[in-house]
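Structure representation.

___
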Amino acid sequence: MLKLAVLISGSGRTLDNFHERINTGALNCSIQVVVSNVDGVLGLDKARKYGYPTFVARGSEATNAILQDYDIDIVCLAGYLKLYQPPEPLKRSVINIHPALIPMFCGDGFYGNIVHRSVKERGCMVSGCTVHFADEIYDNGPIIVQKCVSLEFDDDIKTIAAKVFAAECEAYPQALNLVDAKGVDFFWDRVRAR
């Protein structure tokens, strides 16, 4: 069972998903701590309601000072809108979800509706999400799971976002269960030398 730190910046929808799936046994993880880089966000209220220790930390150094007090296997970026730099022991143990099929519509500045607007403007007929290990470059680490969704000609940005988020709710828990089963090194070793 993986022990998670969950890093958030907003409403905590992914935290909700994790919590629900842990409670049903569909996600073989436990949440040890939730850290937000933004004070007063809804996700912190949800985390407190669920009974998780919660903290606000503005950057990686402050976050790492908190995490050192917890037994953590994986740091999950769950709508965390900063480039996180983990301590050396967790360097290969940070997982992110991106609302597009990497390598498309990714990198610095591509998040949330910016991604979905770009997909719409390009006229894409598919989109999706990518769960991947994170490193020092946005959306660059080894891919764990990708899920594709079909788009219709008249889908607006809100519809695209809803379709992609539904896929994210399946993909992130699936990815964490795979990492629990196969181990972190499997995913780093299957891609080009890093």
